[in-house]
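Q: Could you fold this chain for me?
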Amino acid sequence: MTEPLRPSDPPPTGTHARPRRSPAIPIGITGGVIVVLAVGGLLIGRAESKVNKVALTASAKPVTVTTAKAATYRATRMYVGTLEPWVAASVGPQFISAYVDTVLVRPGAVVKRNEVLATLDCRNASATNQAVAMQARAIDSEQKAIADEAARLRTLLDGGFVSANESEQKTAMSEAQEAQLLSQKAKMQNAALEVSDCVLRAPFDGEVATRSEDPGGFVRPGTPIVSIVDRSIVRVTGYAPEIDFEVVKAGTPVVVHVLGTGADIPATIARRAPSADPGSRTVHFEIDIPDPRRSLPVDATGEIRIQVGEPVSATELPLYAAAIQGERAVLFVVEGDVAHSRAFQVKGEVGGSLYLDPKLAPGSRVVVEGRALLEEGDRVAAKTDALAATSPGPEMGDKGATP
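A: Sure. Below is the predicted structure, expressed as structure tokens.
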């Protein structure tokens, strides 16, 4: 019978001892599982908290509103016009073709009447003029000699010293030479015109607008070298449709907005064409604006505004607050926290303002942003459009722009 081992006895030889398990491993695994489950539970709870369990139709929709303002509207007509100089001229040769010798001015230069602007190389024309002048001088001397001889023959005719036929021939020769002299003088005047065409002068007081040629360029009759404009009076020309024939009659007050300077200039219509253009069916009219300081640009654009009709009461809104359908504007009016779709008659518009029938009470809150997502009766969470509330509106309206 085998005796049990005592604690003090050494382990038996030839036998493998079984290792003892550490309790930390199962504890660690259990703790990890608990942590994973806790984190998963937290993530699930967080995800469920983000789910909106309220129907979208029952929640208030965020919109931006503005307050309608009382205003006065007066219909206007607007036409696009052109600022033109009172007088304009393109300066260049009229009779000869030649090379440009000098150009003495550049755009912006102020010139006086008869001031030299440019010269041409006209040596050939000058030589031709001198040759014609010498020929005319020779014919003149010859004609005088023949005329004196014819006069002497007429004195001898009474005494019978010469025949009548000889006297008449000398007289005819004198008249022929005189006619030839006149013809040569005409040629000399033509040559003188060509010579004078070589010096180009300003036709009036004004300013140089353009410079088209430089020294060395070749020009022909009708080729402009420089152009001159007179801006002491600016003509604003415009075209109105034939239905506005009475609107643009002479004496009508207007306001011209110059796009180049941003200035608004009050003026009156100076003249109007008595008939419409057959092609475009538009009526030409002009406005004269004195400009002694020559501050307005010419060949530029100006907007011509004419007030028509009488001022009427209206309600003003930003133009983007409504959808315009013909003569009606559809918009959303906020009453309490509910948006209602309403339609009102359009009086007119100008700039960024819309003028509606005063049936839309001033002080009403109108949706300006978020209209596309609204339907009749939707609940809204409104905030005020600060920009629309602080921006001043114009005092008159514009019924429409007419080219």
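A (continued): The mean pLDDT is 81.
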